[in-house]
Design goal:
The protein is mainly β and 467 residues long. It contains three helices and 28 strands. Residues 1-18 form the signal peptide. Belongs to the OmpP1/FadL family.
């Protein structure tokens, strides 16, 4: 297995890699593509911002606390479809915006409730839950003629100038989660739950760099190591409890274990001769293990009469538990995570108001970036290199706003939700080798840090039946 992706020289906070290059591809993907929870569920769950860890009663609540399954008093089956869109604006020398949308079946779930007579343990429930989220994203950087590289002949005469003519970074794929959950209720006050969770992350990555000469020729190169694809299969456990102090107030606590992944990767990489030329660009495959850190969820739920419910969830993400194996090979990647990745917090609030059979919902999420500030030598839009502090790079703070409506026809019900998400962060390009179809290559030696602002929208429709 070779690591041949975007490399940076990291100097800081007492841990110095003076001459060693660190691949951030593995460590940043571990946090961004594996480390973030799936943003999916039914329309009710999304509409209230997922703040249901203490309220429970719905299959999607097991994402916060599997004990929420025990609150349900009716069996239920449901399916959710939706449209996810993204609008990605990149700022470097100028602004560039990319947009796309996808239709998917985002979620399906079932709750099966078994009442137990003549026992304080009065209810037992089994639930299945499937979530799916698209990972599609495109970052494109516009041409910048100020970033230029001169070419000379053997006599030292200038023969041409190659100018930065754009950069494109694209990810296509999805991540999904299937969970089998069990819950019970004691005297309709104490609810306990357990979840067995099966995870999959599947994506492809493409990165290209273009140069244009002063005589008008354009050359396009692939990042050495791409196209790249990865399939990760993982397993985790979750357990939780909810206690109802009285009709109006309840509290919940849940623990979600680390996710233990086994990852298969496929990529293309250049083979260099002793003379420094590329002899071939071949496909390779390898396998590694990844542990994603666990999380702890504390929740409060409030109910007023039968008309209004309100929830607050706090999640502590234990990102420092993210590790690669074999550790001997991934020593630098694990050290990068140890030094530059924090444990992080997440807040969810949301409520539902009912008028007869009609329901209205609002929700909000704040997800803190897991990254510390990083100090690097960064080239600006004029290709001038200086020591630069990047604040929360790769994955910025996330804000989500949601709203939803629902109507209960008596057994059959329909819910709709809309979610808007915004996030801004700097990412790295450069300090890498790029290869074209004729096996010529260029080294983009400096590191650049464009800013990406990502706005996502999610439209969901859930159809369900209680029985």
């Amino acid at each position: 297995m070779k690591k041949i992706f975007i490399n940076i020289l990291v100097l800081g906070s007492g841990l110095v890699y003076a001459q060693e290059q660190i691949s951030t591809q593995y460590s940043t993907n571990a946090i961004e593509l594996y480390g973030q929870d799936i943003n999916s569920g039914n329309a009710k769950y999304i509409g209230v911002g997922g703040a249901v860890g203490a309220l429970g009663g719905d299959i999607s609540s097991v994402e916060q606390n599997p004990a929420g399954l025990g609150v349900a008093i009716n069996s239920d089956v449901q399916v959710t479809a939706g449209v996810s869109t993204y609008k990605n604006s990149n700022s470097f020398s100028s602004n560039r915006t990319e947009k796309d949308s996808n239709f998917d079946f985002q979620h399906f779930g079932g709750t099966f409730v078994f009442n137990i007579n003549d026992s304080d343990w009065n209810r037992f429930s089994i639930g299945v839950n499937y979530l799916n989220q698209r990972l599609d994203r495109v970052n494109q950087v516009n041409p910048n003629s100020n970033i230029a590289f001169d070419a000379f002949d053997e006599n030292g005469q200038l023969t041409n100038t190659y100018r930065f003519h754009g950069y494109a970074d694209q990810i296509d794929g999805y991540k999904s989660k299937f969970s089998l959950n069990f819950a019970t209720a004691y005297d309709n006050k104490l609810y306990l739950g357990l979840g067995l969770n099966f995870h999959e992350t599947n994506y492809q990555k493409f990165s290209q760099y273009a140069e244009k000469t002063d005589n008008g020729n354009t050359y396009v190169y692939d990042l050495n190591g791409t196209p790249y694809s990865e399939i990760g299969q993982g397993f985790s456990l979750s357990a939780g409890a909810i206690y109802k102090f009285n009709y109006n107030f309840r509290a919940g606590l849940a623990y979600h274990s680390p996710v233990w992944y086994n990852v298969d990767e496929q990529y293309f990489a250049a083979n260099f001769t002793d003379a420094g030329d590329i002899s071939s660009y071949n496909a390779y495959g390898s396998n590694y293990d990844l542990t994603r850190g666990g999380r702890l969820v504390g929740s409060l739920g409030f109910v007023v009469d039968k008309n209004f419910s309100f929830g607050v969830d706090y999640t502590y993400h234990m990102n420092d538990g993210t590790k690669f194996k074999p550790t001997s090979y991934f020593n630098l990647d694990n050290s990068f995570i140890d030094q530059y990745v924090n444990n992080s917090s997440e807040i969810r609030v949301g409520g539902e108001y009912r008028i007869d059979k009609f329901k209205a919902r609002l929700g909000y999420n704040f997800i803190e970036s897991p990254y510390k500030d990083i100090n690097l030598d960064i080239a600006d839009v004029n290709n001038i290199v200086s020591s630069t502090t990047l604040s929360k790079p790769f994955v910025g703070d996330i804000n989500r706003f949601s709203a939803g409506l629902g109507y209960d026809f008596g057994g059959f019900y329909i819910d709709a939700a809309y979610q808007y998400q915004t996030q801004k962060a700097e990412y790295l390009i450069g300090n890498s080798t790029f290869v074209d179809n004729d096996l010529y290559y260029v080294d983009l030696e400096n590191t650049y840090a464009p800013t990406a602002k990502l706005n996502n929208s999610l439209f969901l429709l859930t159809l369900g039946w209680q029985f």
